[in-house]
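Researcher: Please predict.
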Amino acid sequence: MAAIGDVARLAGVSKATASRALSGRGHVAVDTRRRVEAAAAEIGYIASPDAASLVTGRTKNVGVVIPFVNRWFFGEVLEGIERALLAAGYDLTLYNVGDTGPVRDRVFEFFLARKRVDAVIAVGVDLTSREAEGLEQRGKPLVRLGGGEPGGARLSIDDRAVGALATEHLLHLGHTRVAHLAGAGAAAAPWSVHGQRRLGYLDAIAAAGLGDAVAGSAAAGAASGAAATLLEGEMTMPGGYTAALQLLGRPGPRATAVFAASDEMAFGVIRAAERLGLSVPRDLSVIGVDGHEYGEMFGLTTISQSPGDQGRLAVDVVLRLLGEGEHADPLPDSGAPLPTRLVVRASTTAPER
């Protein structure tokens, strides 16, 4: 079996230089690094990650905590993270956690707390103070992509501004009966992504002088005797479909425009409108958030973000916090939101007079 000494002799360098070249830690001239890598490839030498971990104290592994693996946004973020980590020579361990429960407790108190990962990226997960402090006490850098509450460097779009912009787009087209389909639990968790988008909607409605929205739930129904303009549901296509059927099927003045908290939810709204014989956008304008890859096919107006780029940026911050990369300085939350843009398509237009 080939050893590091064999690689060093073939490349004409010391064992220490060969080790630095293959581990990526420490300065090695570019030509020397290439010569060492070529020598290792020639004799089939593969560096032992366990041995490297004993020397450096690093596992070259990053834990990623995510609430869903079967939704487009999270899948795109995860792909961006994986590609960036692999390019940097790191592995990834994925933990799919819910809001609460013993599985989540075990992930944070056992798996992430031990030496299995060098750092943690939390995607759309609202961490508790205990979870964030536990990682900090064990020297595990934390980067949060979206999500609210404490701890770590945070990267996020301005979800409140996004909610306001989506609503303002509909208002500027001339709609005065604008409904919002918010994510489940948005009112109870105002710091969350869907909670912030809900607040942005309310900001725009209030600024337009249209009064307070009446809150309701797609599961429990709206307040008795009121025309609901705000419902909550799952941020999925079925969730949007179910909530929209309730919203659009109620007697009384019907909303002429809907701001859905996600593109997948908006797709459900479009299908529900078709089910009820309504034409989009003639009878109902619809806008979502995300920039889903199917948005063009549905003709959906949306506030687009770039989840894959966000995943790559999260890895860049992790590497800085670990002291790697060209910029090896910590990068705390600067407060600057990640970019978004309004993409206008065929699902929104002025209401019929």
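Model: DSSP finds 13 helices and 13 strands in the chain.
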